[in-house]
UniProtKB/TrEMBL annotation:
Keywords, sorted A to Z: Cell membrane, Membrane, Transmembrane, Transmembrane helix
Secreted as UniProt keyword: no
Designated name of the protein: Cardiolipin synthase N-terminal domain-containing protein
Basic residues: compositionally biased ranges: 64-73
Keyword field contains Methyltransferase: no
Pfam families: PLDc_N
Location of region: Disordered: 62-85
Domain of life: Bacteria
Membrane topology: Multi-pass membrane protein
Amino acid sequence: MPFLIGLVNLAFFVVSLVDIVRLDEARVRYLPKLAWIIVVILLPFIGSILWWTLGREYAPRPARSARRTHRTPAPRPPADVRTTEQQLADLEREEYEAKLREEIARRRRERDTD
């Protein structure tokens, strides 16, 4: 039995060290990777537990829905594929139309007051 506990502890230690070495630096929390390696080497069991609970940042999980369906997702609207010049021209046209609407409204007000 003690042999089995020692074997599990050694496997946990090795898996933790491999995970620390392979994980991207951006996903390591609280200490640099080298410090986590030293902690796990000096305190094999407790250091490994600390690594898996505190030191490692896990990737966010996608939200689960209550009901699973095998439908294809709804198509996304197409991205705006207009060039910058086309977008500027559309904005200028919208501004011109707004000015024309204001002018029409002003003339109607003047005509109604006369």
